[in-house]
Each structure stands twice: as structure tokens, then as C-alpha cells.
Amino acid sequence: LGRLELLTAEEASQAREQSSLPEQVRAVGDILAGKGSYASHTLQTFTETTNSQLYLHITVHEPMVQKHLESLQSYCGNGLETGALQRLTNLLLVEGLTDIQQQEHDILQIETTKGLPNTSKSIPLEKLFLPLSKVSIPPRVSVTTGVAGIGKSTLVKLFVYTWAKGEINRDVLFVLPLTFRELNTHEKLSAERLICSAFPHITEPSCILGGAARTLLILDGLDEFKTPLDFSNALVCTDPKKEIQVDNLITNIIRGNLLQEASVWVTARPTAATQIPAGLVDRMTEIRGFGAAEMKDFLDQMFLDDRDLSSQVLQHITANRSLRVLCTVPGLCRISGSSIAYYLKTSVGQPQETTLVPRTLSEIYSYYFKMALGGDWPEKPRETLRIEQAVSNSKKIVGSLGRLAFYGLLRKKHVFYEQDMKAHGIDLSSLQSSLCTRLLLKEEMQTFTAYYFSHLTMQEFLAALYYYTAAKRAIFDLFTESGMSWPKLGFLSHFKSAVQRSLQAEDRQLDIFVRFLSGLLSPQVNKLLCGWLLVKDEQSGFRSQAITFLQGCLNTDYAISLRTVNAVRCLHEIQHMEIANTVEEAMKNRSLAGMLTPVNCSALAYLLQASDVCVEETNLSNCLTYNVCKSLLSQLLFCHNLRLDNNQFQDNVMELLGSVLSVKDCQIQKLR
């Protein structure tokens, strides 16, 4: 079976029975002989000339295919705990991206939708590239979305590993997984060189380029690509040997100008997925987050040797609604779980008034950094370093990584290479330190080494630390990398600049950055990081002015947006919750009538997402006017059980509510 060109069905059957090749190679014999459940479907890709003969437009070389399967099993099976990945074997089948997914930061998406996608349809992993019905055709372009840390790359590895073992999609003869991290290292490529450079053992790319072998091309991590895809202005290319700009190559592959017969699977964060026109996407799926049982299992796996600690961590997470919602994402659950476990272990035997229970996002990440800075880690023994040396080293490393993180954030850059490290003055040898390995992950391939932060929020926290430190002495706008700008003196001036930029930015990339920046003004965060990264009580000089400025951002006569809600969350991070507490108390006592000023409406919009009062039912009876209802409209979308009786509504309000119920994002299930 070394070379198949023209076989009768009988010869193909004999060849198959004698073959000891892997399933993907034996599949060729099945197809020609008309055997197997998948044979009838795959038969469509061949040309039947007589009843007894089939031309197979592919030359299959046993060593090439076997080497490909072995390399994929080795690469994708490394570190893959298949027992903990049951969640990824069923994806959510969606009809496109919602407005929230297209426009908002990942964290705001989770908080707003409470980690619950508005869909009930699902599709098993093994059917991801199969027709949905007997009369439909397989999707050519599939897109799978998910927020940062949800498990997109893990899903790709799981699929490829399972396929390479012959357990799913046996009709696909070649699966070619590529990452945009790898594509970033090229300026120009042809379709042929793309395959040969990534998979040097594929010595006959013509069988893939010509479309004879059913092929699945996987492009993982579109959000990490250095160049946005421009489908409107991309040059058309149909020559697989012609070298063109990599972004043009990708657009031509997705459009079907190149590798026309190949299926294409793209994974991306939701905002990045909007780069691909909806008309080119045949199937869109979404990765769901943890349910309650899965979160428990995940934490049990994290703390395998201490189930009591795992139970305490879970109890702390479930007691905080905002934290519970964020922990539906595995990447955030790992960070939060590690931080809370560190808090629980270090607070044993200490007076309750001296320990700071982590409640805000900034406090969670401060505990995480304190744990990393001190060399204490749930899985590793404590390192013995002199405190003075540790402080000096950590300040230098965090400063360098913080600058990289901040300017990377401004450029929407989340993957870095050796030249980026050198450009920011980072000594590559320092990246071997235990602190760096806990903040920055490293991926080594044959042709490049890539670095990326362990989670998007880790980059944002480091960026905020850098900005906080630099703003105290900077005389020019830090957002201008060249340093040329109007003078800007004093921390508060820089703080206001950051908040205003986040409120005005179209891409929402700075929302969590300013939340962390506000959190660094919190007395509890200062207490956690003083001596390491912050000066004791230094925030007290400008904390009150920062609070006043943030409160001014809430006084809007316009519709309340998630930006306004984010400003309230900044006040929560800074530990100033008087307004929100007052409104929450009024909600409990049903005395909101007459007190919903623009500022209080902003606090109410925040409480709709974060307060336990709104979990079972959002009761806004007898307190809304037309203007208040209009300003809150976009936030009422995400209330599952909404009570609006006794509000003396007129017809114009009913029209507003009717428009809300027809919106794609709407999650209202019960309306009174």
C-alpha cells in the first residue's frame, strides 16, 4: 500500500486486509472498497469512472503519513490530561457573535452574562466538522470562540491528539495544526511553503494543495496574530507556490482561493473573531465555562493532596458572586484558587484583623504576586533567597516585564519574541528565574521562541503596576511611547488620562487595566505589596481625589453603558463602595423610588451584575420613570427574572421593553 493510484474495489479490499498501517492510511482502502460508515461520505471526493474502478487523486506514502501521526501524538499528547477535559467534548453551537462579544473586553463579557452563554444547542467534538443533517454539507470554514483562558488551545490539542489516535473524524486524512504565534515569525509565505515549513515530514504537499486528500487546516489563536485580517483590501491569490504577505495568505485560504478543498478551523477570542466576515463562516461554536461540579473537580485536581484546602477555596469563591462568575473560566479559576489557597495557608494562627480576605480582582492578583515574589507556591517548595536580594531582583524584573506588558497592551500585542525582549531591555537569562516562570510562559519551537503572559489579566496587572510606578515621576504622557507630548505632571494627572482613555477607546482594551490601576490605590493592596513593589501608605495622598474623579464619571445623562459600570467597579477596587451600598440597601428595603439619580443609576447597573440581591429576582417595582428605564435599558437585558410592576408605565416605555426582548443579547426569561 506504499503507492495507490488506480485500484479496483477488489484489489483495494485485499490491500486493506493485508495492511498494518494506521487508521488514516487504512482508510484509503476502506474508501476504495466502499467499506466503513464514513466511506459513503468520503467517496464523494473521488471520481468514479466505471463500476469497478476509482481514480484516487492522492499519492499516499506510508512513512510520511505515519511520521505525521506520530509527531502530532507526541506534540499534542504532552501534558494533556484527558480525564479533566470532559467539558471540551461538547461545544455550544451559536448563530454568530452577540454585540457584547463583538465590543466588550473578555472580563466584562463574563461579568455581564454571568458566565452563562445565551444558547442551549450543543455539538459533540467528533461531529464538529460533519454535516448537521443528511441534506447539508460539511462546513468548510468553522470558527470556535472563547474568552481568554477558557481552553481554546487545549481544545485544539485534544482534538488533534484524539484524531491522531484514529478515534474521531477518520475520513480526514491530514490534520495540520498551526498557531498564529508561529505565523507571526514569517513576513511572506506561499501555501506550499506554509505546509512544508510547519510539517517538514510532509514531502508531497501536492496531495493537500490539489485537494485529493481531505484535509483540516487548524489556525489557533487569531487574537495573537500581529496583523489584523483585512478581507476588503486583500489581494487575490490562487497560486499555491506564490509567496505573499502572511495576512493575505490567511485571507485567501479562508476565502477559498487557496486550499479550496481543505476545511479550515479558526479559534479566537470573540473580539478577534469579528475580523472574519460572517458570510464566510459556515459554522460557529463557543467553548462553555465551568459549571459548579466542574469547578469543584478542577480545584480538587489543583489541590490533590489537600481536599480540605480545596473545599475552603471553593467555599470562598462561591460566597463571592463576582468571583464565582469569573471562576467559570479555567485560567481565572487557577489564578484565584492559587491566591485564595495562599491566603488561607498564610493566615493560619494570625489574628483576624491582620489578615486581608481577598475580595476584589486587585486583591486576588496581589496575593498571587506576593506568593510568586516570596517564592511560595502550592506545588513547589519555598525557595531560600535573602529578602533584600529578592526585593531588588523582583523590582527590576517586574519593572521590565511591566513595561513590556503596558506597551504590548497598547499595541494589542500578547505574544513576544526574543527581539521584543531585547528591545525592552529584558535580559533573557533573567527569564529563567522562578518569578518569571510564574508570570511568563515560554514556547520553544524549532525556528522560534515565543513568550506570553500566563493570562491576559496577568499582562494587564503588570501593565498597571508599571504605569502606577512610572506615573509618579513621569513628566510626559506615558501612552505616547516616543515620549513626545504636552507635559503631564503628577500621578493624578496620569491617572485621569488613563481613565479617560479607557472611557473613550473603541476597542475596550484598557477597561481591566484601569480597574487594576484603581485597585493599586486600595489600602489593602498597598498593605499586601508594600516593601516589595509599593511604598507603604503612599496611596493615601491621592486616593480621595481619584475617588472624586471616578464618581464624576458616573454622573451621566446618557444611557448607562458597561463603561459606566466599569467605573463603579473601579470604585469597588479602590474600596469605596458607599454609593453602591446605599442603593443595595434601598433595593433590599424596596425604597428605591425617588432616589435614582444618574449616579445612583450607575450603581444600580453595577448591582444588577454583582449583588446577591439580584440573583433570584431583580425587583425594580414602583421606582422607575421613563428616563430612568431608558438609561438602564441596555443593562436590564441580562436580568433573568425581571420584576417591573407598579411603575405607571406608558406606551412609550412598553415600546422600549419590546425592543429589548428582541435583541440577540437578551437573557430575560421571566418578565413581570
Automatic annotation (TrEMBL):
Localization, per the record, is: Cytoplasm
InterPro entries in the record, alphabetically? LRR_dom_sf, NACHT-assoc, NACHT_NTPase, NLR, NLRP_HD2, NOD1/2_WH, P-loop_NTPase
Q: Which SMART domains match?
A: FISNA (SM01288)
Its predominant location is: cytoplasm
Q: What is this protein called?
A: NLRC3 protein
Instruction: Spell out the GO cellular component terms annotated for this protein, sorted alphabetically and separated by semicolons.
Output: cytoplasm
What top-level branch of life does the organism fall under? Eukaryota
Q: Which GO terms describe its molecular function?
A: ATP binding
Alphabetical keyword list = ATP-binding, Cytoplasm, Leucine-rich repeat, Nucleotide-binding, Repeat
Q: Domain NACHT: where?
A: 140-272
**What single Pfam family name could you report for this chain, choosing any that match?**
NACHT
